[in-house]
Structure formats: C-alpha cells, structure tokens
Amino acid sequence: MVAVGFHSHWLNGIDYIGQSGKTASKGAKYPPEYTGYTFPLATSIVLSGQYEDDLDNCEDIVYTGQGGNNLLGNKRQIQDQVMLRGNLGLKNCMEQCVPVRVVRGHQSANSYVGKVYTYDGLYQVVNYWAEKGVSGFTVFKFRLKRLEGQPLMTTNQVQYTRGRIPNSISEIRGLVCVDISDGQEDIPIPATNLVDDPPVAPAGNCKGTCVDPKSCACARLNGSDFPYVHRDGGRLIEPKAVVFECGPNCGCGPGCVNRTSQRGLRYRLEVFRTPKKGWGVRSWDYIPSGAPVCEYIGILKKTDEVDTASENSYIFDIDCLQTMKGLDGRERRLGDVTLPTYLEKDDDKKSESVPEFCIDAGSTGNVARFINHSCQPNLFVQCILSTHHNIKLARVTLVAADNIPPLKELTYDYGYALDSVMDPDGKIRQMACYCGAEDCRKRLF
Ligand SMILES: C[S@@+](CC[C@H](N)C(=O)[O-])C[C@H]1O[C@@H](n2cnc3c(N)ncnc32)[C@H](O)[C@@H]1O
Q1: Which helix (H) or strand (E) holds 94?
Q2: Residue 324 lies in a domain
Q3: Is residue 376 part of a domain?
C-alpha cells in the first residue's frame, strides 16, 4: 500500500495529510480543491486488528485512534492517546464531511507476511469520543459509516488471484474434490470452493463420507435429503417409494450414512420353530424403529421363468414399481422421490402390472427367507437402489416399522391380493394365515 501510495505509513493505521491547525488558503502549497479545509485530514485508515478496542461490522466501524499502544503487535495500550495527527485528522474529517478510505487486513497463510489487505471503499466519520480502553488508558473512538451508492463489499471472503499454478494437489486452496471426473478423464479436474461456508462440492459422485445432502447426488434423488439419520447406527426416517443409496460409483466409504442398508446384519437374529408356520425369525436385541434388519437375498430370476409347479414358498416378487405407482391394488407409498425418467413413461403398461423380476431364495438365500407374514407386521419392505437405477431390479430390505422388543417374532406383510395365486392349471390356491393378529384376514392368499 505504501508502494502504490494508497496508505503512506508503514506502522500507523491512520494516514493523513497536512499539519496540525493549518487551513489551506488560495495560492498556498495545497492544491486548490483543499482551499478552506482545516488540517490535518485523514485520508485512509487500516483495520488490522491492531487495537484491542476496535469493532468492525463491515458497514459500521468503531475504530480506535492511534498512539498509546506498545507497537509489539500484542494490541496492548500502555498510555493515553492524544488528539493529534491521525486522530485529529479523523476528527477534522468528521467536522468537514470529508470521507476516508478504509482498508482491511485479513489473515492469510498464503501471504508471506501472513496478511492481505483489501480496499473496502469510502466511509464517513459520524461520531467520535474519548473513553477508557480495556487497559485503562484513554483512547479515542471514531464511528465510521460506509457511504451509500458504492459497490457491495466482496471482501468478507477474500479471494486471491494466484500468479502461479499449484505444483501439487496439497497446494490447492479450498479443494473440495480432487477429481470431479472420478478418474474418468486422463487429467484430473479438481474443484475448489472458497466461497461457501462450509464449502460444498459440485454435484457429482460423493466423496469421503457424505455429510451434506446438497453435495450428494444420491441424496438429491431422495428429495434433497438423506433418507437415514445416523442415530442407532442409521435409521430410515420414513418408508419411501424407493431409497437411492450411494453405490460403487460414489467415492464415499462404507461409513456413509447413505449406505445404511449395506452394512449387513446388526442384530443377533435367531431362526426358531413356530407351532403352525414352520420356521420364523426373532431378534435377541432390541431393534429401533427405522433400522434396516436384513436384505432379502436370493437368486434373481425373471418371474415368468419361475417353475410354478414346484412348491417354492421363498419367491419374493420385486414389486417396487407396482408399489410406487399404486398398481394392482398395491398401496402406493408417499414421498417426494424423483422417479427415474423411464418410470414416467406409460408405454409399457403390461410389464408394469406384473413384477418382471423376483428373488428366489429357495435354493440360495439368507435369513430373510425364514421371516413369516403377519397382517400386523413389525417390519416393512423397502426398495433400495444403489448399484443402478433400474427399479425393476431394486434391492429389497426389511426395515423395522416399530420399536421391536427382543424375542418378538419378526414379520412383514407378504402383500398377496386374495385369490391372486393360482396353480399351473389355473385353479385358485388358498393358504390359511396363522399370524394371530387381531385383525388377521385369515388367509395369506
Ligand atoms: C418365506 S417362507 C417363511 C419361512 C417358513 N415359515 C419356513 O419354515 O421356511 C413362507 C412360508 O412360510 C409359511 N408362513 C409364513 N407366514 C405364515 C402365516 N402368517 N401363516 C401361515 N403360514 C405362514 C407359509 O408356508 C409360507 O409359504
């Protein structure tokens, strides 16, 4: 600032012109525009946090006059200030309505002096007074107000133009993403954000663990929020038409909240024999509402290729699309989910009315295959997309619909419409329900 003539003192925060008590008169050494002004006149002040009593609210400043501090940089006053030089200059500016330039110092690790300075416009001194400062010495206070009609201040967040290209990733300031192409381009494309607080990454694949739904493309598909809360190891906030979780194309790790259903079993489950329903499943642990209990695992098959002649009671139809659209008597799930565009097309009504794929846990499966039906279930079926966005091939996870005490049988609603199951010869099959619920409809199908 000294070099460019913006502020001609190395140490003083107030720059001023003219000698004390002098008034410029025509023909004197002052330029004609100063005629009639009493000197000194302050020309600029630098706010650098040097004084312990400074207050700065950007548009309004309470600035401590100069003098009386120990110049050691520790901001301590050691004697009274006097109304001379810069202090008098500010007072004269107030009395003669002369605006003052304001320069602010900002801490900056990137500057070799540890600070950068910005010019923040013209301010008017509107008031001044003397008071005892924090250290007990008299200090002058000057209240300055930023003049109207000037460009908005942009230096709350100082932005730097660097004269050289960073040598390495670690030198890039405000780095929010090392490579937005996620390795798909030969040359990585880093993203930086020095504006937002906290800084967000551009939309795209997720990095680290997703903490901000705005910067997680998968969370945005869920209606711009994570479907889970962290509590109890991750709980689904509410049943959704479909949950979009982070997957293999995201850069986030297994700890990401938006991978809650992918963490495997968390409760000690037991397969136990029931009196009338064959095997059933219960938990030794308390399961909180919204906790994913287990995924329905088996062999993925086309529904029309399943052998209906064989008695296979471990087929799970992937009917997420039907549930989402409320087709075939299925109760439609609410939720502001962004449907993949192909689901909006209405040209494939037939394939929409019957689930195209199913999970066959008859020969290969996990504990989910032993979970029985109930007309008053304590689990619900949640469709989840993570590795792709084909709803017809969604993963199926069973989630706690309620707080489930230990040793209570785990059940979900199989969702059969009555008289919907037929033998290969077209005869309607029926199965009695022994769920024992108060409002049991007495038939599974
Ligand atoms: C997916 S399996 C469940 C595990 C089965 N209980 C077992 O022993 O392997 C579905 C079969 O369990 C039986 N089941 C499930 N829920 C039932 C219920 N509420 N009432 C009667 N039987 C039921 C039926 O035989 C049904 O076909």
Answers
A1: helix 85-95
A2: yes
A3: yes
Ligand 1 atom closest to the CA of 435, numbered from 1: 19
Query: Which ranges in 260-332 belong to alpha helices (H)?
Result: 320-325
Distant-in-sequence, close-in-space partners of 289: CB < 8 Å, separation ≥ 6: 235, 400, 401, 402, 403
- State the closest ligand 1 atom to the C-alpha of 313, by its place in the atom list counted from 1: 27
**Closest atom of ligand 1 to CA, residue 375:** 19
pTM: 0.58
3-state DSSP call for residue 171?
Answer: helix
CA 52 to CA 75: how far, in whole Å? 6
Instruction: Determine the residue of 316, 317, 444, 445 to mutate for testing ligand 1's pocket, defined as the one with the most ligand atoms within 8 A of the Cβ atom.
Output: 444
Query: CA triplet 204, 210, 216: central angle to 5 degrees?
Result: 30
Q: Which two three-digit tokens encode residue 222? A: 């869920």
Q: Residue of the nearest CA to atom 27 in ligand 1?
A: 313
Domain that holds residue 388: 191-211+216-412
For residue 44, pLDDT beyond 70:
yes
List, for residues 46-100, the tens digit of each pLDDT value.
987 655 556 777 788 899 898 887 766 666 788 899 999 999 999 999 999 999 9
Q: Is residue 180 part of a domain?
A: no
Quick check: CB of 370 below 6 Å from ligand 1?
yes
How far, in Å, from the CA of 282 to the mean position of ligand 1? 14
Are 31 and 147 members of one domain? yes
The three-state secondary structure class of 428 is strand
What element of type H or E holds 218?
A: helix 217-221
- The predicted complex's ipTM stands at 0.99
Kind and range of the H or E run holding 111? none
- pLDDT tier at 340 (50, 70, 90 boundaries)? low
d(CA 281, CA 378): 12
CA 148 to centroid of ligand 1, rounded, Å? 77
Does residue 257 share a domain with residue 127?
no
